[in-house]
Amino acid sequence: MIQVLLIDDDVELAELMRDVLTKYSIELTAVHTPNEGFEALENKKFDLVLLDVMLPQLNGLQMCSKIRYSNAAYKDISIIILTARTELTDMVVGLETGADDYVKKPFEPRELVARINAILRRANAPEEATAAQLPVLDAGSVSTRSGLCVEVALEGNILQIETQRAQVRVNGEKLVITSMEFELIAALAQRPGEILNRDDLLDEVHGTSGIYTRSIDALIYRLRTKIREAGASSDFIRTVRGRGYSLVGQVNSLTST
Predict the structure, then answer these.
(1) Are residues 81 and 118 in the same domain?
(2) CA proximity to 54, closest of 94, 18, 84, 93
(3) 35 forms bridges with which residues in the sheet?
(4) Can you give the pTM of this predicted structure?
(5) Contact 251, 139 (CB under 8 A)
(6) DSSP H/E element including 170
(7) Which structural domain range is residue 101 located in?
(8) How far is the first Cα of the chain from the last one, in angstroms, to the nearest whole number?
(9) CATH number assigned to the domain comprising residue 30
(10) Does 196 lie in the same domain as 115?
C-alpha cells in the first residue's frame, strides 16, 4: 500500500481521511504536531506527506521548508500542502518552500487521491525506460511532452530531460527534484530556445494561468541551484527580462514517442 503521513491537528479529519484513503489502497499515518511529524519521518519510510498549513509550534509552510532544506534522508519526499485559508500567499509560499502541490480544504477525497497518485507516478517513473528506443524528430515537430527526451549542451555541460522516466540529468548525474520543478523544466524542454512567459509556464505546471506567477521565479531559482550543485558550470535557463525564461544551449537531440 502507498504510505502517506498526515500532519494535521484536526483529529476528526484525520480519522475520516484514514477511513476514506484505505479504500484507495493508501495507508494513512496521522500525527498532530510538527514534532510528531519529524519523529514519524525519522522512524518510518513514507511515500508522501500531507501537511496542513495551520499547525501548533511551527506552521506547515515553515515545516515544509525545514524538510526540504534538511540533510535528512526524507528531505526529497513528496509533499502536498493542505490549506483552509483562501489567501493566495499560502499557496505561493508553499510552492516556493518546496511543496509538490497544494489542495484547498474542504476537498473531495477523489481529488486528493488523484493528486497523490499523479505526484507518485512522476516520482516513481520506471528507471528501465530508455531514450535510445525513441525516434529522432525535428525540434519544431514536437507538440506534446509525452515521451519527450531532450539533450542540451552548453559550454561543455550536458543537460538531459526525459519525460518518460520523469528524470533530469546533469553531466550524467540524476537530479532529485519535485514534481513541479520537473514539470517546469519539461515545459521549457518542449520548446528549447523559445521564450516562455510566467503565465505560460504556470499553465503547464499547474493548469492555472495567471494566478501564482511569481512562484515560477522560485521554482526557476531552485532548478538553477540544483543544476549548479550537480556540477554544471553554465546556466541552462536564461532569464529574458520582462518576457520570461528560455532553455538555452546546443540541442544535441530531441526525441519523442
Answers:
(1) yes
(2) 84
(3) none
(4) 0.60
(5) yes
(6) strand 167-170
(7) 2-123
(8) 31
(9) 3.40.50.2300
(10) no
Burial of 131 (0-12, 13-18, 19+ CB in 10 A): middle
Q: Does residue 246 share a domain with residue 211? A: yes
Residues 82 and 64 in one domain: yes
Q: What is the DSSP letter of 141?
A: G
Torsion of CA 177, 175, 183, 54, to 10 degrees: 0
> Tens of pLDDT along 209-244?
334 556 777 778 888 888 988 888 778 999 888 888
Cell match 497518485: residue?
117
Question: In terms of Cα–Cα distance, which of 192, 168, 196 is closest to 252?
Answer: 192
| Domain total in the chain | 2
Amino acid at 144: T
Q: pLDDT for 152-192, tens place per residue? A: 898 889 999 988 778 899 999 888 887 778 888 988 988 88
The torsion angles phi and psi of 219, rounded to 5 degrees, stand at -65, -40
243 and 197 Cβ atoms separated by less than 8 Å: yes
Closest among 115, 89, 95 to 103, alpha carbons compared: 115
Please give the C-alpha separations between residue 215 and each of 164, 208, 219, in angstroms, as whole numbers: 26, 12, 6
